[in-house]
Write a structure and sequence with these properties.
globular, 5 strands, mainly beta
């Protein structure tokens, strides 16, 4: 039973980290980062995430490109603006 739970909880082999995905705005690879909302503390990893601000509306973008400024959402290999 434990082995089955480990199999289920593993990330999909098709999951590609954001930093390796191509931006739909500029077509460049390496600039995509997850956007985190809230006040960053002193341990915030600015190299890994984009600060999205403190106000959350519920329809905020989830990912962004640091190279061109594109922001949107990524679901099932499809980009949404």
């Amino acid at each position: 039973m434990i082995n089955q739970e480990r199999e289920i909880s593993r990330p999909s082999p098709n999951h590609t980290p954001y930093k390796y995905r191509v931006c739909p705005g500029c077509g460049e690879k390496g600039g995509m980062k997850k956007i985190l909302y809230g006040m960053p503390d002193s341990e915030f990893d600015f190299d890994k995430y984009i600060v999205g601000g403190c106000v959350v509306s519920g329809a905020d973008p989830q990912v962004g490109c640091v190279k061109c400024g594109w922001e949107g959402e990524y679901r099932s290999e499809i980009w949404f603006e």
